[in-house]
Amino acid sequence: MRSQLFRFAIAGAIGFLVDAGVLYVALAIGLGPYFGRALSFLCAAFATWQINRRLTFVVERTESLWTEWLRYLAAMSVGGACNYGAYVAVLMFLPKVAVAPLIALGVGSIVGMFVNFAFARWWVFRAQH
How far is the first Cα of the chain from the last one, in angstroms, to the nearest whole number? Predict the structure, then answer.
């Protein structure tokens, strides 16, 4: 389990980069910090799903890709809700500077990581019998 958590954290770090990149593009085109964050979450979830299904949780799959993706998105939404709540809370307390969304995103990512790992390991990518 320790090696899975490590690989999950690596996937999460890559997801964080996707999340931050999409968020700042969304901010640049005027989507705002809240809608932009929702869009960046979806992009990061897709990126981490691709990594986790191939490298972190390698199990025999019996369901379709669409079913697995929807299950993963639902699972990550639980941690994502924790992540987003922390993001909003931190944004409310930080001064409005260019790095504030990045700091808030980092705090949110840490908050959601352990919830997401548990759901991914024991619900989404559980071994099929």
Answer: 19
